[in-house]
Sequence to fold (288 residues):
Amino acid sequence: MHLPPWFWFGLITLISWGIVGLLQKLSTNHLSAEWALVWLAVGFFILEPWLYPGKVLLTYSHRGLEWALLSGVFNALGAWALLAALKSGGKASIVAPFTALYPIVVVFLAPFILHESISALQAVGIVCALIAVVLLSTESSTA
Amino acid sequence: MRVIPQGLKAKWFWYSLLCVLCWGAWVLCSKLGTNEIPASTMQFIFAFGFIPVAVLVLVMKRVKFEKSAKGIAYSLGNGILAGIGGLTLFAAYRSGGNTSVITAATALYPLITVVLAVLVLRERLNWLQMVGLGFAVVAIIIFSL
Fold:
């Protein structure tokens, strides 16, 4: 079976973020959500020495660098909005599945912004994934 | 019928919607950035985007410093793992795969969290989560074709 090149990268993302989901539960047992977010950001910076690209950084276009920076800002704002939703009375059992639906925004905007389209089979896969992520985000009961 | 207008009045609804829109924008910016910039450099710059939001959160909420060593260790671990996940996500976008498919596939990460929560935290799966596991497996098989 020939897997697409992105599959293995995506699998590492899936596993890393899956563990993050667990650690998040554990960290917020000891810290407020705000400090958990701040220390998470500090954790990003622990990786920075290995990621530092050197002088080549200055050769990229302003537009490219802006997309990269905006990517971080939007991700962090999304994380803050999720915290705010939970703090302002949203039940985790509703807010978590709701916010897991962000791929819908991408599916609708990708044809216009990225000029990408999806096949019928990929559409079925995306629908299955969205149903899965909503159901998986419902709250577990503690044994 | 009165449920919908009441839901729309709730602050949490609008914050949740903002979260969905921000994360949608994060994906689109990521894809546009990776058209030119390598994955490791994307992750390097991405981290700086967290600074203004982290400062804003602390200033707005006026949260006092919390010195739980365990909590800090878990959160730092979170940051490192989230960074590694972000790095490979940028690599996936840069590999030329379909953005919607990659986004939907990687958004399945609660699959791993739920399995780990059962193994580590001894949580029990509810029946909805079990059905969700089934859908996740089907989605992953379809994406691998």
Remarks:
- The mean pLDDT of chain B is 87.
- Chain B touches chain A through 116 residues (CB under 8 Å).
- Residues 4 and 12 of chain B are 14 Å apart (CA to CA).
